[in-house]
Amino acid sequence: MAIPVEGFMYPNEVELQWSVLIVLYPFITGLVAGAFILASLERVFRVEAVKPTYRLALLTALAFLLVAPLPLQLHLGHPERSLEMYLTPHRSSAMAMFGFVYLWYLMAVLLLEIWLDYRRDIVLKSQTSKGAARLVYRALTLGSSNLSERSLHIDERLGYFITLIGIPSAFLLHGYVGFIFGSVKANPWWSSPLMPIVFIFSAMVSGIAAVMLLYMLSTRLRGREIDIRCLDKIAQYLLYTFVIDFSLEMLDLLQRIYEADESFRSLDFMVHTRLWKSQVIVQILLGTVTPIVLLGLTQVVKLNDVARKRIYALAGGLTLIGIFAMRWNVVIGGQLFSKSFLGYTTYKMSFATREGLLTAIALMILPFGILWVLVKLLPPWQEASSLPAVRTEA
User: Would you put residue 341 in left (φ > 0), alpha (ψ -120 to 50) or beta?
Assistant: First the structure.
């Protein structure tokens, strides 16, 4: 398959090294960080209105975090060699050190916080369940069956402390992804000191929007009434974060326009040709400006509950599309022009290959399957967690 090329390009620049799987990598990690930040609003900042989404946000973060490294593994020619970065750490490699950032967030923060928050429910279920479920819940207790008042108080305080650690850890998780791109000085499309900050706020936007949509969908599927007060508060935080994120992106754009260095002519050509649809139309107009206007409308105009729910659902869906487009424009767009700024190429995505569209779709569906299992095992609903005490140990 011939790849259309304009101008002068070296042979190693014609074919893109990073495919759609590398687009999924920052998108999925962003959902993880954003979902955890939303959960911290209730635990740390005592925003009681978002309490119905607290446990759902934690489980959502875990489901997507388990899938986050898979795009990188599939991209590698020898994925089994990835274990070497843990056995022989290479401190000067930003990509290699990210493995330790990932493990820290997974093992020391997210899993531990979920276990502490669910420990009472797990112990009670291990006493009341039967068959294989009983064995599963007994294994999840990790040998801790003490449900005394003092023990539960320790769980609460320790969980609060871990959440405090988890907030900067969530920033580090996705800010590090932005740092990896922003530190690649050979590419002027990525090399910006604002890149890590933009990635952090866009992660918060995507995670909050994803949890909001999942809460609305799961509540409807369970035949329960959506807590409109909770939804209003989530949408309010989504709007505030979105405005900050968009402002940072525009600030980065204005700085590039003002500097107008030797790469600006090439980047300007890219925006007006190769990336016009994906960046200007999909990312900015459809995925950013439209959701901000819709969310702002709910703040200034008094609408009924049904209208607000529909607007929130539409704004949340458009937000996820816009953030994905942003990741696409960063990863794919940054590879469509030569380092000499004299040539341009295109990206043709294959379908049923290791790094094709079918694989990308499967990777996006997988976290929802994992989340379904987690929800069945550890129900996040408030009424499900209100289990009667069976017996306690002093």
Answer: left
Angle ∠(289,290,293) on CA atoms, nearest 5: 85
- With residue 7 as reference, give the H or E element that holds it: strand 6-7
Identify the residue whose tokens are 């900067």. Answer: 168
β-pair partners for 7: 343
Cα separation of 386 and 11, whole Å? 63
Which tens digit of pLDDT belongs to each residue from 139-196? 999 998 899 999 999 999 999 999 999 999 888 888 888 888 877 766 888 878 888 8
Which of 275, 364, 367, 292 minimizes the C-alpha distance to 326?
275
pTM, to two decimals: 0.91
In the three-class reduction of DSSP (H, G, I as helix; E, B as strand; rest coil), residue 180 is classed as: helix
Phi, psi dihedrals of residue 344, rounded to the nearest 5°: -140, 145
Q: Cβ neighbours of residue 176 under 8 Å, at least 6 residues apart?
A: 94, 98, 101, 196
Distance of CA 68 to the CA centre of its chain: 9
Q: Please, are residues 55 and 371 in contact by the beta-carbon 8 Å criterion?
A: no
Q: How far apart are CA 233 and CA 52, in angstroms?
A: 11
Contacts by 100-107, CB closer than 8 A, 24 or more apart? 101/172, 101/173, 101/176, 102/65, 102/68, 102/69, 102/173, 104/169, 105/32, 105/65, 105/166, 105/169, 105/170, 105/172, 105/173, 106/65, 106/66
Report the C-alpha dihedral over residues 94, 97, 103, 108, rounded to 10 degrees: -100
- Which residue has tokens 């929007």? 209
Amino acid of residue 195: M
Which residues face 6 on adjacent strands?
A: 344
Reported as a single tens digit per residue, the pLDDT across 20-53 is 999 999 999 999 999 999 999 988 888 899 999 9
Could you give the CA distance from residue 256 to residue 248 in angstroms, rounded to a whole number? Answer: 12
